[in-house]
Amino acid sequence: MSEFAGRTEFWNIGYPFAGALVYLIAPIALASIAYAMRRRWQLWHTAGADVDLGPSSVRWKAFLSLLVGGLFAHKQFVRKRDLYPGIMHFSIFWGFTILLIATTIAAFEFNAEKYLDWIWPTAHIRVELGFIWDVFGGGLATVGLSMAFWRRYVIKPSRLNTALDEGVVLGFLFALLITGFLIEGMRIGATELNPSSSYYDTSIAVWSPIGWIFAKALMGIGFTSATLESVHAITWWAHAGIFVSAIVYAALRFSRFTHMIVSPMNWYYRSLRPRGALKPMGDFETLETFGAKDIPDLSWTQMLSFDACTNCGRCQDACPAWASGKPLSPRAVIQGMRGYMEERAPVLLGTPEGEAPPEPATSMVHDAIGDDALWSCLTCAACLDACPVEINQIEPIIDMRRFLTLEEASTPDTAQSALQSIEQRGHPWRGTTLTRTSWMDGLDIPTLAEKPESEVLFWVGCSGALVQRGVDTTRSMASVLKKAGIEFAVLGDEETCTGDPARRLGNEYLFQMQAETNIETFKQYDVKKIITTCPHCFNTIKNEYPQLGGNYDVIHYTAFVGELLKEGKLKPTEAGIGKVGTVTYHDSCYLGRHNGEFGAPREIISSIPGLNFVEMDRNQERSFCCGAGGGQMWMEAEGERVNHMRTDQFLETGAETVAVSCPFCIQMFDEGITAKGAEDDKKAVDLISILDKMTD
């Protein structure tokens, strides 16, 4: 045996028989997991849509960043809005990881010394390391599992609905932990605390405090050294059996255990597109089907993401559609897709090559998910932001919307009306009496046709030109640009809808038509720099037009104006501040969560002298959607309206004014304030209009 004190591998078990058995069990366990992963890989690859993984160097860099920050530092899990489960997961992960490291090091020490006659470096500090293994391994694991049991069986949050699988997993982990402590305690009691043992040394025993406590407790209830040795052997084999059983359970059920493998895989294979950019469909002339009707219409990386889901419910808690009583739960979408995959993919795998697979017994779109759920999505990205394993819940929803719109023509009537208006008039605002140039009356604004040398194109957008509240914002934007001495031009009648509503409603064909028209216009005038007031236009031109060859420097006005303020080209005063009162700010989903712009609007607010600003409780990444995204602006809402919920959150601040930086948001707040009967003393104003009034 080793001359070094501390944990002795295979003590009291019998070597080489026990060791040989353990080394036989280990590859069997690993083979079980490998078989399960291979089978799952086959299921995933029944999907047939193209996958663009991009450069591997970029992917590895992004993956390692997530691995360090998301897994090791647990930034993806430990968030203020979800602190308890975040700490719980951190404790379980690092507790059992440290215990695994301890077991691995012990195996290296034993085999290096026995077969290579080499002392593994850690053997010199085996006693001191025992303290780390006990306190930071066993201690953290105990804290994490205790929190998990308390949360699931005492607190019982409504979003947790996997009691059986979760209970089995927690049971396995607890059994591994308690038997591990018992094994350590019985070894310490029979050796380091036993005066008749050659290992006797009480000063060493206390370096493993949890094991020492177990040893003292067992000895206190009458366990003799002989009893400790006998029960130790039984417990050691029980511990090994529990481990093997857990591996087999994970392999057979592809349960919660396997997310330790699949979730990091999803981090690596997740889309590296900007969050606000939807997946392109490609060349319509080569497509056999439009949208996703069945598994072959999806990508294998999407199928992988369904398995990466741990059913934690964070996305559901964050979803405004779910909060307002709509039939959409992002968690249920992903779990429904996983269930459909497990039902349908084996049928596809069993179909002989060259033969058409049988029609599915149930519809992926209509049965597994449901039309109402698909049309309830606001595409606000609250679910994406909340998901610790980077699942994109929006992507399969849009894929299935494309099927409903392009294959079945079953778009909701009001949304279909907006799509028809885009196709016929170039904008979704059916019935407007305004034109693309009405807002320009009396302002002396040049068009690019009149001033093609202009370096900056001010993209007005449909709402900015054709909705009166949007017109007010557009005129303020033009005024601020003039005050700052910025030379700019607009497209006027040559401007047409970016196609954003069409794409979010599933009409990819109409989106491409609109995008290609605008890209051709930009090419005609050699447009390079574009400023927008609408986050939806900003996101579409910046993140989605490059898919069709349109690459431009696109800036939302909050960032552009923020720079003008820093350069001293705009100097706000306190004039008129009394009419505004206390101000709060609403983060637009497509400016904030989708494009990460939270600071610029607040810099504008802080630049206005004397302005009293208060934050809403749900702000920045946690901002609650206004209710207009994902084409909901043109759909009838049933039940509680999302914009009414957000209006309530505004009213709770006590502020007189809610500042916004999106034309959709301002319309939704206007309706919400009126519906709440607060229009006499509360108002919604675009931030650029506030700045315009307070700038000479």
Automatic annotation (TrEMBL):
Keyword set, alphabetical order: 4Fe-4S, Iron, Iron-sulfur, Membrane, Metal-binding, Oxidoreductase, Transmembrane, Transmembrane helix
TM ranges: 12-37, 86-110, 130-150, 162-183, 203-222, 234-252
InterPro entries: 4Fe4S_Fe-S-bd, 4Fe4S_Fe_S_CS, Cys_rich_dom, HdrC_iron-sulfur_subunit, Helical_ferredxn, NarG-like_sf
Pfam families hit by this protein: CCG (PF02754), Fer4_9 (PF13187)
Any one of the GO CC terms: plasma membrane
Domain 4Fe-4S ferredoxin-type: 300-331, 366-397
Protein's UniProt keywords contain Protein biosynthesis: no
Source species, domain of life: Bacteria
Record keyword Membrane present: yes
Name by which UniProt lists this protein: 4Fe-4S dicluster domain-containing protein
Source species taxonomy: Bacteria, Bacillati, Chloroflexota, Dehalococcoidia, SAR202 cluster
